Amino acid sequence: MLSIVTLISGSGSNLLSLLKACDNPLYPATVLAVGSDKDAAGLMHAEEFGVSTFVVEPDKFDSRQDWAEVLASNINHLKPDLIVLAGFMKILPGLFIDRFSPKIINLHPSLLPNFPGAHAVRDALKSGEKVTGCSVHVVDAGVDTGPVIESRQVEIHPDDDEQSLHERIKVQEQMMLVGVVRNIAEGKINLEEFDGNR
Ligand code: GRF
Asked: What is the pLDDT of residue 194?
């Protein structure tokens, strides 16, 4: 059974998909805990599924390093096999990446390497492209730069706004995440082979 800690900052729709998948005894993964950098709405999904939560707010620390140390210590003792960033909107300092690499994956709402950063959906809309998508990648020291494990395409419709496009992307993200986690659990994806940090 693959054990997971998930970090979120937002509504947690991807977290919810993962929790629902893990609720099926035939699914080979389990969520040990869910963490956030703030009192994120999505934490309620963890509570609904009886999964423990923790919040470590950067503002409460003198430095990003101190924040990352405490965030890491909330995870370390659980000894997870995998950390899933599912809409976690803070950049993790190197010390955190070094501690857990290559066992950290991130979901991103674009076809990486296109449109990295916090406004991927908006940037894709502005670009005039007809297709965007979503990616899951191994986290390295850069922003959305780690090796891509899987991606899915999503058409951009002429009448799309940021919200409508993002909602369609999230549907694909949710299915992709559940599939990638299954493949990692079943040994069909070996994160060591994707190690972007070294
Ligand atoms: C997702 O689109 C993810 O790719 C991005 O943030 C969004 C999180 O959505 N990094 P949710 O909180 O899972 O609904």
From this structure: 81
What is the per-residue pLDDT across 28-40, written as a single tens digit (0 to 9) for each?
Answer: 999 999 999 999 9
Class of domain 2-194: alpha beta
How far apart, in whole angstroms, are the C-alpha atoms of residue 85 and residue 101? 13
**107 close to ligand 1 (CB < 6 Angstrom):** yes
Contact 3, 79 (CB under 8 A): yes
What percentage of the chain carries pLDDT values higher than 90?
A: 97
Please indicate, yes or no, whether the overall pTM of this predicted structure exceeds 0.85.
yes
Closest atom of ligand 1 relative to the 8 alpha carbon? 12
95 alpha carbon – ligand 1 mean position (Å): 24
Judge if the beta carbon of residue 109 lies within 6 A of ligand 1.
yes
Structure tokens belonging to residue 174: 């949710």
Domain locations along the chain: 2-194
Peptide bond into 158 cis (omega under 30): no
- Mean pLDDT computed over every residue of the chain: 96
**Mutation test residue for ligand 1: of 38, 90, 107, 154, the one with most atoms within 8 Å of CB:** 107
Query: Ligand 1 mean position to 126 CA, how many Å?
Result: 19
